[in-house]
């Protein structure tokens, strides 16, 4: 990775701290004191870490990753073998790779080997990560052998990232790592990024680059908000007309089954789950283009107006369609969960439609259209249950009192701090598991250091019992797509999402904004060196600036 | 350029207009109605344009740019010859170029030639553009010959850009241009972009890409805020220790004389002036690292505190240094103007220093430190006057009552609309020329369509006579560097700066936000096709999305 040397970190310190013509900072935002953190550039901070003063060297001509004797995953495990190549490249850099020496003599203070040991009988190498996966690892760096132990390959991947983050260059440019002990595990099991490929189509290249960066930040869930009102880029084998008619372009702006498979495998190799969201009954304008009679015809007085509203909840054909559609989804996406949306249903079209009115009367719903919404969602949840998937739904579904399976995840996205904390309390007191996103809508930009407020939010800060707190399984940073596409998505997401990554991984007590600033500055320069255009936190420089434009 | 076809423009229309979970738009911001503009993708809109319904074809195998008989610039004019190659590439695209046909038979509705005629005796081909340059042009598109007439090469460059913007693809992908007449000239002579290479170093590649994009938007001034408190990347031949000590890094983060020369020539070939800013007496922390005794030593009680304030205005050595430094600057930068800054001088250090106090008493300045500031600036202006340059200064210098040459440009950057309008009125009623930037601080981002407010600001909207209005020579969009570097600068600047480009070029009456939205959406897709990561205005797609990440 051509890591930052200590001298480079000190140089970073020079570039900061004077007031400037346009430096209108948010009043709550701390103006950081710049100095190298005692934790170097580690991000997110491990649960336990002891870095000694003893510097050891690494050489690209001798260093090896090896599978420990007795490890339950080895040469045939592509998750590990791919990761070794990736991290060798990060640590020793691109073009100037030297030939591995046959005569592997090494100095007394040289680390020549990182021995990787998977300790569970089931390494999970050929499986997929899941919400119950053990992601812990233990890392011990010594000369000549460093040791990484993890119950599963998913923990080992995190350990490899941490190992690479411990490597730096001394003042002569020599690869160096201090003797170190790390014992690490995530605070929350679900640490996600939502990307939206409907408001703007996101080329596969962009998705993969962001999965790569997620791994550098120990995120483990890609929440793929794949379709919405604006476009339907998912090419369905069962209903190909959905993207044929509903995508921005049926050939250049779709994800084929092969594309989706590639995204899922690329993610798996980095310990990342892919959870697709197919949001209904609202947010479905693009679905209606390829699927006749799926959406509710809106009326203007006594006649259809020609426009359409949410999914039509009163037709049997709707549920036939959903059964076949979600059956496909459940086989295409291996994760145990699917996100069903359920947010922001606009009732005005339903209210205008005489058939819907009649149905409301028959069912005894009166004027309460949220009962109709619940009627729909209830039937949808039953359909998805038959596919053996768990489901995640936006908070409105819970707010409307729909009957939910006990293992449902309720995703909180609305409101200010007081409001979302009260929602989290309600959900957990009803015994449901929950995910937080409200403070992490990273699409909402503002001028200044806008990583600090997301960093300060804590998903367990609400009034509730210890039992309730345990029902918080994590959160997601969301980058909705109205204002981002391939041109600006990556720098807008990173390193702002890194702030969320540390909140979801590290111990609750890790809240020192100054220390975070210093580690994060170095971490962002590392992402830049790895080819990711992660934007700056504030006035500063990186030893190697981004090579693109 | 593989321009947008009309059908592509209509497709663009599909991607928009539903309310969405995170669509919190500014209340003043208009939600646009999407439809192709009758002006296609022209940006900025020419002063007069008549596009007929007659479609003509262009072929990469036959089309030529030619120098008209009697033109005062031709085969030996590198400004034109370079531009022909650039625009051929934009129009006919990159890899699939065909060999020019010897047998140049053409259909009756084919444009085979754009004849370029420079009409002034002095074409200015070997010179530099300046504030008094004539940038007008007349373009007439017909078959088989289109004609572009301009008094100078600078006008011809704008005409070539307009010609390229008129080309689109028909539904079969054929290059098409409608028979058209354009008569065009800029509303304001000074249309600038400020980039700041001190808070973050901007690699040459980034500067050049943005100059390229400026030309696509008919900007004609690159205001290079090259040094500031944070770093001094300008490698001075006379005082090399300034960057040796004051740059972020003396080798990797500096602009050598060859770099500066390359930037100036690249800009000249695109009709862009390069005006450097060397801001004093404040904003000079980085200068003090390489130049002993230049800055004022601050005192803590009776002893020096070890920190330094603004330039020390009471030493003769200061003025010797400035004389030699600005002599170099005046020869390195060919433009007729240099920007001398003069903003935000913090008096606290001066107040702490006993020698300064003594000097204040001797001069009879009392406690009025703005008099000391004026004393310094006055001497600096006299120095710069001897180099035969005009100067631009930030508004504080005028506010403090410094005596200014009549041709001084006063740059307004402070305040809200009411405040900057009152400042513009004051400056022009005192008979000075002025430049506006207050509404165009594009570093200040916010969520939503933040191109609309900059688009609505008009530099001549203030209370004053017609004579006063004429003293407004233009404005500049500023992208201060605290939060931008190579990773995010380009998408953050474009197409937001394009809004300012149209305000400064097009007629005052061009204010239709809907029409602007539609033209600008297409213009931004064109910039993307030309390899510039210009960010989206709102939910939408481009026929060819950005290829980077």
TrEMBL record, chains A, B:
It is found in: Cytoplasmic vesicle, Secretory vesicle, Cortical granule; Lysosome. SUPFAM superfamilies: (Trans)glycosidases, beta-N-acetylhexosaminidase-like domain. Disulfide bonds join 77-125, 298-349, 525-542. Residues 188-507 form the Glycoside hydrolase family 20 catalytic domain. Its main location: cytoplasm. One of its GO terms (molecular function) is beta-N-acetylhexosaminidase activity. Residues 42-166 form the Beta-hexosaminidase eukaryotic type N-terminal domain. One of its GO terms (biological process) is ganglioside catabolic process. It holds the Pfam family Glycohydro_20b2. InterPro entries: Beta_hexosaminidase_sua/sub, GH, Glyco_hydro_20_cat, Hex-like_dom2, HEX_eukaryotic_N. Keywords: Cytoplasmic vesicle, Disulfide bond, Glycoprotein, Glycosidase, Hydrolase, Lipid metabolism, Lysosome, Signal. Its EC number is 3.2.1.52. Transmembrane segments: none annotated. Residues 1-19 form the signal peptide. The active site is at residue 344. It catalyses: a ganglioside GM2 (d18:1(4E)) + H2O = a ganglioside GM3 (d18:1(4E)) + N-acetyl-beta-D-galactosamine; Hydrolysis of terminal non-reducing N-acetyl-D-hexosamine residues in N-acetyl-beta-D-hexosaminides; beta-D-GalNAc-(1->4)-alpha-L-IdoA-(1->3)-beta-D-GalNAc-4-sulfate-(1->4)-alpha-L-IdoA-(1->3)-D-GalNAc-4-sulfate + H2O = alpha-L-IdoA-(1->3)-beta-D-GalNAc-4-sulfate-(1->4)-alpha-L-IdoA-(1->3)-D-GalNAc-4-sulfate + N-acetyl-D-galactosamine; a ganglioside GM2 + H2O = a ganglioside GM3 + N-acetyl-beta-D-galactosamine. There are 3 forms of beta-hexosaminidase: hexosaminidase A is a heterodimer composed of one subunit alpha and one subunit beta (chain A and B); hexosaminidase B is a homodimer of two beta subunits (two chains A and B); hexosaminidase S is a homodimer of two alpha subunits. The composition of the dimer (isozyme A versus isozyme S) has a significant effect on the substrate specificity of the alpha subunit active site. Belongs to the glycosyl hydrolase 20 family. Hydrolyzes the non-reducing end N-acetyl-D-hexosamine and/or sulfated N-acetyl-D-hexosamine of glycoconjugates, such as the oligosaccharide moieties from proteins and neutral glycolipids, or from certain mucopolysaccharides. The isozyme B does not hydrolyze each of these substrates, however hydrolyzes efficiently neutral oligosaccharide. Only the isozyme A is responsible for the degradation of GM2 gangliosides in the presence of GM2A. During fertilization is responsible, at least in part, for the zona block to polyspermy. PANTHER family: BETA-HEXOSAMINIDASE, BETA-HEXOSAMINIDASE SUBUNIT BETA. This is Beta-hexosaminidase. It comes from Oryzias melastigma (Marine medaka).
């Amino acid at each position: 990775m051509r890591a930052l040397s200590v001298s480079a970190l000190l140089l970073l310190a020079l570039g900061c701290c004077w007031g400037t013509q346009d430096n209108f900072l948010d009043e709550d935002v701390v103006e950081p004191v710049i100095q190298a953190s005692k934790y170097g550039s580690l991000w997110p901070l491990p649960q336990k870490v002891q870095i000694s003063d003893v510097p050891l060297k690494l050489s690209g001509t001798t260093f090896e990753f090896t599978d420990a004797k007795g490890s339950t995953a080895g040469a045939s495990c592509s998750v590990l073998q791919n990761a070794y190549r990736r991290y060798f490249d990060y640590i020793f850099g691109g073009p100037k790779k030297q030939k591995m020496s046959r005569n592997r003599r090494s100095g007394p203070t040289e680390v020549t080997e990182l021995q990787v040991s998977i300790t569970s009988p089931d390494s999970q190498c050929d499986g997929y990560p899941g919400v119950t996966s053990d992601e812990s690892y233990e890392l011990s760096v010594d000369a000549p052998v460093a040791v990484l132990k993890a119950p599963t390959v998913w923990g080992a991947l995190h350990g490899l990232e941490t190992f690479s983050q411990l490597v730096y260059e001394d003042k002569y440019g020599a690869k160096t790592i201090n003797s170190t002990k790390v014992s690490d595990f995530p605070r929350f099991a679900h640490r996600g990024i939502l990307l939206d490929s409907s408001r703007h189509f996101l080329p596969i290249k962009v998705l993969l680059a962001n999965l790569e960066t997620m791994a550098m930040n120990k995120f483990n869930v890609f929440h793929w908000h794949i379709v919405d009102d604006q476009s339907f880029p998912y090419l369905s084998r069962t209903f190909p007309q959905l993207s044929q008619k509903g995508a921005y372009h049926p050939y250049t702006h779709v994800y084929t089954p092969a594309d989706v498979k590639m995204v899922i495998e690329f993610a798996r190799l980095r310990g990342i789950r892919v959870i697709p969201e197919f949001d209904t009954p609202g947010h479905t304008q693009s679905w209606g283009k390829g699927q006749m009679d799926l959406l509710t015809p809106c009326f203007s007085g006594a006649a259809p107006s020609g426009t359409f509203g949410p999914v039509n909840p009163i037709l049997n054909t709707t549920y036939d369609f959903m059964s076949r559609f979600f059956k496909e989804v459940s086989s295409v996406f291996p994760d145990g969960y699917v996100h069903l949306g359920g947010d922001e249903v606009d009732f005005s079209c339903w209210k205008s439609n005489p058939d819907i009115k009649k149905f409301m009367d028959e069912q005894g719903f009166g004027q309460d259209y949220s009962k109709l919404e619940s009627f729909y969602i209830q039937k949808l949840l039953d359909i998805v249950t038959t596919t053996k998937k768990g489901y995640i739904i936006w908070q409105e579904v819970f707010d409307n009192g729909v009957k939910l399976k006990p293992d449902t995840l309720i995703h909180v996205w609305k409101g200010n701090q007081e409001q979302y904390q009260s929602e989290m309390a309600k959900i957990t007191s009803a015994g449901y598991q929950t995910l937080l996103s409200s403070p992490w809508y990273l699409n909402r930009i503002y001028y200044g250091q806008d990583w600090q407020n997301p960093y300060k939010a804590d998903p367990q800060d609400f009034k509730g019992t210890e039992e309730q707190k345990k029902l918080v399984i994590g959160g997601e940073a969301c980058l909705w797509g109205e204002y981002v596409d391939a041109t600006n998505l990556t720098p807008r997401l990173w390193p702002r999402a890194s702030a969320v990554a540390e909140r979801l991984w590290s111990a609750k007590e890790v809240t020192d904004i100054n220390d975070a600033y210093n580690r994060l500055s170095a971490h962002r320069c590392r992402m830049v060196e790895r080819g990711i255009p992660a934007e700056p936190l504030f006035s500063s420089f990186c030893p190697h600036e981004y090579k693109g434009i």
